[in-house]
Amino acid sequence: MLSQKAKYALKAMIALATQEEGDLMQAADIAERQNVPRKFLELILLDLRKHGLVRSQRGKLGGYALAKPADTITFGQIIRIMDGPLAPIPCASLTGYRRCADCRDEKACAVRKTMREVRDAAAAILDGMTLADATGTEAAALKAAIGA
Amino acid sequence: MLSQKAKYALKAMIALATQEEGDLMQAADIAERQNVPRKFLELILLDLRKHGLVRSQRGKLGGYALAKPADTITFGQIIRIMDGPLAPIPCASLTGYRRCADCRDEKACAVRKTMREVRDAAAAILDGMTLADATGTEAAALKAAIGA
DNA sequence: TTAAACACTACTAATTTGATGGACAAGATA
DNA sequence: TATCTTGTCCATCAAATTAGTAGTGTTTAA
What we know:
Two copies of one chain form a homodimer.
Chain A: H1 4-17, H2 27-34, H3 38-50, E1 54-57, E2 63-66, H4 75-83, H5 110-126, H6 131-147
Antiparallel strand pairs in A: 1-2
Helix pairs in contact in A: 1-2, 1-3, 1-4, 1-6, 2-3
Chain A binds a DNA duplex through residues 3-5, 26-28, 37, 39-40, 42-43, 45-46, 49, 56-64.
């Protein structure tokens, strides 16, 4: 399951990705636009800053911006920061491998093999989806809704 | 994340799938073979029985068996019983849909769209993997290990 | 009739999740 | 320089979930 934290992080990053290069968006602004508790969002943004995905400016007229181009930041990166590995089970993870305490023969384990497949499929989607892709599809959906 | 409960359930079901038609396997036996706490396993098996995936016999010489052929029971069925929907987020679930409280425009939401893709990919793998497949790959891996 | 097995209920300790509150620091502007 | 606004950081917290454990009851074969 994706935590609320990760969902809020994705939504906040998508909001930041709609900004012009050089602009700043304030936490309160993001919180209101995305319907997210402001203080909780600040925690999330802080975490994202520490991991180098956003930059921030303090003081009056301060705010947040993406630290890198929107087409170089993926859903996978954001989710791993907030929730940890994508794999459904640690023994099937690439980034956070841990052996199952109860496992007798990891090589033969069909559960592990299958969960590795699931991980790979999820990673292919999430590591392939950039913030630029996301803002693109949202803009297109909105435009279609207006057209209809 | 797959819970321990779901992992234990999968392992127990795979163990049951290795049995001859008509045989029974006792909870204590499964628990020992799969390295799972016995009482916890009994709860899991009870749950699986209530959902019609295993049948049980009480009394001396009692035990458990699959209630249906091994090639008609999938990982997806078992995981949904133990952990609920496969989707990473309720608004992307087919079997357990729930709207996000904070969502302004569900149609346009890129997070939801992407999580639906992840759900579909996971479902394709997990609903396609039967207990018969699982015992098959485990047996093959074991045979290969002995040959090497 | 008794021993061995599943069935069921209840409880609990630890962890995770989803926050909230407040003090502090930095920076723009009057 | 004063001050107001905004991000930073720390501490705390309540509710839910997870991962079990314990014990009693019920069924059945021998």
